[in-house]
Design a protein that fits this description.
Layout (H helix, E strand, L loop, with lengths): L2 E4 L4 H5 L5 E4 L10 E5 L16 E15 L1 H4 L5 H10 L7 H13 L6 E9 L7 E2 L2 E2 L5 E2 L3 E3 L6 E4 L2 H8 L8 H4 L28
Parallel strand pairs: 1-3
Antiparallel strand pairs: 2-5, 3-4, 4-5, 4-6, 7-8, 9-10
Amino acid sequence: MSRLMSVAFTEQAVIERRKTVTRRKGWQFLKPGERLTLCRKVQGRRSSDGTVEPLVRLAEVEVVSVTRESLRRLYDWENDPIYATREIAAEGFLGMGPALFVHTYFVEAQDMSVDDFVTRIEWRYLDTYTRPSTDTVRLPEGGSRITVKRCCDACGRELGDATEAELDAAVTGRLLPSVLDECGRHAPDAVCTAKDCGRPQSEHEYGVFCP
């Protein structure tokens, strides 16, 4: 089972698959080849009344590099501006100053020094999904809260949480937009195997093969 990692401050960058690097105070135990499940929030999901926020999975990744690095390398960004600019973009904070990044998320938030070392973790994405996937939550008063999922039109593979537009279409009886491209398993020139059809997928309404 993959380890869970919170990416609360860079959720959108993960959804857009722009974030490929993170720096952590700990995590020295991590090794290349290990897998991580990036989540909206991992710890601190239980409130004082016993309610638990659902675990929202954003992406599955494989670690490709784990190194130790001083925060000063980014803080003194003038010494290597190309590296600093590239790293901040990979962290998901495109356009943010490297020194401000270090001060905001390490010095101020975690009471660290710019001379402290952190673990730089780099990963690659294992999926083509761009949707959050929210777990079912058991409620304190009994019962559960579930989040409706969207599946591929053709193969039925679960892609993640349904959007508000998709839920509205389903409730009002309208056809859902195709998610074949999002699934990533279906080539545009794939041929329908239904009896007496043989037409390519692109000629089918909404890209869905015959039943």
